[in-house]
Design goal:
The structure holds two protein chains of two kinds. Chain A is mainly alpha-helical. Chain A is about 50% helix and about 5% strand. Chain A has one domain: Non-ribosomal Peptide Synthetase Peptidyl Carrier Protein, Chain A. Chain A has a two-stranded antiparallel ribbon. Chain B has one domain: Thiol Ester Dehydrase, Chain A, CATH 3.10.129. Classes of the chains: A mainly alpha, B alpha+beta.
Chain lengths: ~130, ~180
């Protein structure tokens, strides 16, 4: 398993290149959307870079479960329901969903993932 | 107005890399209007030319069945302006192609001087939102022929790249009318 610090540095470099931000902005707690300005297309770019850097494969939807968030079975009036939250927790063990649970609005979801979440995600793959 | 920002290909390797020329001429109106008194090729149009060089290369990879969209300019650096009389040599490489899209790196040179560097991210438009074809196949094939793709295009084994059958059929139907 790769060293945590090494993973962070490589994830940081990927985010700097993908999002055009400075490396000191990419702190462990920085949110990808809110703090670093990631847009939807950037997630595919980030996935490509992580796959290349770490020589891993990331199935689509694993990092950012758009299929759950756009499924009427799991979303009611713009909020993820209990079944949806349970599925997200199962699908995204790398992410801390506690804060999202307080206000599980789909619009807020993108604002939840942090650099640290990405590092944990990568660590589970390498 | 035509929106072609390359003059022709000089190298075209299926799914891998390509080189195209863009000759910058004082007679192009945007050179006069862009920075009055200082005729130069707008960098944005150099990016467009590099994107066209790589975008057609990517489109050809799927026989133009995928609809290729420029999604993101991940990097662009310009080292000097391009002036009237310059021949820009655009070299592009497809670093990765998958079902969602592709990543391309490209450079623009004037002689031996590196003029610009880009990294471009293309996506394939999903079938359900793609709708109608973006171009008339026969017209599009004429453009591809004009750009010399089928004169110089090869695959990595050196075999000639051939036009997609559906475009050739469209061309034949057009000339039969």
């Amino acid at each position: 398993m790769a060293d945590q610090e090494e993973i962070f540095e490589k994830v940081q470099a990927a985010l700097v290149d993908a999002l055009g931000v400075d490396d000191d902005e990419v702190t462990p707690e920085a949110t990808l959307v809110g703090d670093l300005g990631a847009e939807s297309i950037d997630f595919l770019d980030i996935v490509f870079r992580l796959e290349k850097t770490f020589e891993i494969e990331i199935p689509r939807g694993e990092l950012f479960p758009e299929d759950v968030l756009s499924n009427a079975e799991y979303v009611e009036e713009g909020k993820v329901n209990a079944a949806g939250l349970a599925l997200l927790k199962e699908r995204m063990p790398f992410a801390d969903l506690a804060k999202f649970e307080e206000n599980p609005s789909v619009a807020e979801f993108g604002n939840m993932l942090t650099t640290n979440d990405l590092c944990r995600f990568v660590a589970s793959k390498v | 107005m035509r929106w072609f920002w390359i003059d022709r290909y000089t190298e075209f390797i299926h799914g891998k890399s390509a080189t195209a020329i863009k000759n910058v001429s004082f007679s192009e109106p945007h050179l006069v209007d862009y920075v009055p008194g200082f005729p130069m090729m707008p960098n944005s149009l150099i990016v467009e030319g590099l994107a066209q060089t790589g975008g057609l290369l990517l489109g050809e990879y799927s026989q133009f069945k995928e609809r290729v969209i420029l999604a993101k300019l991940a990097k662009s650096e310009f080292h000097r302006p391009a002036f009237p009389g310059d021949s820009l040599i655009y070299r592009v490489e497809l670093d990765r192609i998958d079902k969602d899209g592709a990543v391309m790196t490209g450079t623009s040179h004037v002689g031996d001087d590196l003029q610009a560097e880009v990294e471009i991210f293309f996506v394939h438009l999903a079938e359900e939102v793609a709708g109608e074809a973006l171009f008339f196949p026969a017209d599009f094939l004429r453009l591809l022929r004009n750009l010399a793709i089928y004169d110089i295009g090869i695959d990595i084994d050196g075999n000639r790249v051939e036009p997609p059958p559906h475009m050739v059929d469209a061309e034949k139907n057009l000339s039969a009318k």
